[in-house]
């Protein structure tokens, strides 16, 4: 069965990479951005293309080689977030590749994409109809839970699902660390790629960089110039409303900030931001940043940097290109599924 699932997944890889050319996907894409204005066609297209890359046969085979496939399938409830398009797909994929049965509770913000992908899979491998179910109402009759939500919903999830084998995720965000290019173990900063890390999906994902640590006397000019590549966001009603609202609040309250024309760049110790805002913090010693990352590690999804001095960081520009084995919250979903 594992080989059949891999074959079905790899067969739809190209369809996801060309979503608008497939009737089922094009309908789901249209319904998604009609229902949720944050999910514009470009964001959905990018998300589906990223999934399409995951589903190449060689990637799936490499990903699964160290995990077992269940002989006695369990029913795994997956409660999806809805912050970016098809964000629950990785959990869906892991459940199927581990041999278990999926009971999926969709976010009200993202109701169409995963069912459309499931239809394509079932067309390729009809036996998967017994392995994929979408819950319309309250979920019931399950053996384990993977739930993703906010810090508030985490308390709810802990209360209701604490007695089941579970992975329960809460709010996280991502950060960038800029190290002086004259220092050892650094590379030049590509500010265009850093802006991709910040603003892809309009900054709504947990892998979006919401705060950057910068050395004293940092020159923001290249970052401001790079942000102009995203000027089209100002034509997006919801993004523009956020941008205008927070800029007005800062001006009225005499809060010092940098207006890039697309982003409000604000000195702030908080990792978490609002849409259209980038936080920053100056540092004198890189060791202070390393200590701050350790303290905040449970709130950080990933770190991008131009320096190998920051352990476990990834290259700037790669925040929205996670590999299959880059698990959310650094919890190995496949290992968990193998254990139930």
Remind me, CATH topology of the largest domain? Aldehyde Dehydrogenase, Chain A, domain 1
Name of the level-1 CATH class of the largest domain: Alpha Beta
Number of domains: 2
Name the CATH homologous superfamily of the largest domain: Aldehyde Dehydrogenase, Chain A, domain 1
Category by helix and strand content? alpha/beta
How would a crystallographer describe the biggest sheet?
7 strands, mixed
Characterise this structure.
Helix 3 (23-35) packs antiparallel against helix 7 (113-124) and helix 9 crosses helix 10. The chain has two domains: 2-171, Aldehyde Dehydrogenase, Chain A, domain 1, CATH 3.40.605; 173-315, Aldehyde Dehydrogenase, Chain A, domain 2 (3-Layer(aba) Sandwich). The model has no long low-confidence stretch (mean pLDDT 95). The chain is α/β, with parallel strands linked by helices. The protein is 39% helix and 16% strand. The strands form two sheets. Strands 8-9-10-7-6-11-12 form a seven-stranded mixed β-sheet, sandwiched between helices. Strands 3-2-1-4-5 form a five-stranded parallel β-sheet, sandwiched between helices. It is globular and about 60 Å long.
List keywords for this structure.
340 residues; alpha/beta; Aldehyde Dehydrogenase, Chain A, domain 1; 7-stranded mixed sheet; 5-stranded parallel sheet; 13 helices; globular
């Amino acid at each position: 069965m594992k080989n059949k699932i891999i074959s079905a997944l790899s067969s739809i890889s190209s369809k996801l990479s060309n979503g608008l050319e497939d009737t089922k996907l094009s309908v789901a894409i249209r319904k998604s951005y009609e229902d949720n204005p944050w999910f514009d066609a470009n964001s959905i297209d990018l998300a589906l293309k990223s999934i399409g890359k995951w589903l190449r046969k060689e990637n799936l085979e490499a990903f699964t080689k160290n995990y077992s496939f269940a002989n006695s399938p369990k029913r795994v409830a997956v409660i999806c977030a809805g912050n970016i398009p098809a964000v629950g797909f990785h959990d869906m994929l892991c459940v199927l590749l581990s041999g278990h049965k999926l009971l999926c509770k969709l976010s009200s913000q993202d109701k169409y994409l995963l069912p459309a992908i499931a239809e394509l899979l079932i067309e390729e491998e009809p036996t998967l109809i017994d392995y994929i179910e979408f819950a319309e109402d309250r979920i019931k009759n399950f053996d384990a839970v993977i739930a993703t939500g906010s810090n508030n919903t985490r308390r709810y999830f802990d209360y209701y699902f604490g007695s089941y084998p579970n992975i329960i995720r809460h709010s996280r965000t991502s950060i960038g660390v800029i190290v002086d290019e004259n220092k050892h173990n650094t590379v030049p900063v590509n500010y265009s790629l850093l802006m991709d890390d910040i603003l892809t999906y309009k900054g709504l994902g947990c892998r979006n960089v919401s705060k950057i640590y910068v050395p004293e006397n940092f020159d923001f000019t290249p970052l401001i110039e790079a942000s102009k590549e995203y000027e089209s966001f100002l034509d997006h009603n919801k993004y523009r409303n956020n941008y205008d609202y927070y800029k007005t609040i800062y001006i009225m309250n005499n809060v010092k900030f940098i207006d890039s024309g697309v982003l409000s760049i604000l000195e702030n110790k908080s990792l978490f931001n609002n849409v259209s805002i980038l936080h920053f913090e100056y540092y004198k010693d890189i060791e202070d940043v390393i200590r701050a990352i350790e303290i905040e590690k449970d709130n950080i999804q990933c770190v991008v940097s131009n320096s190998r001095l920051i352990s476990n960081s990834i290259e700037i520009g790669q925040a929205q290109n996670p590999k299959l084995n880059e698990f959310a919250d650094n919890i190995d979903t496949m290992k968990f599924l193998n254990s139930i």
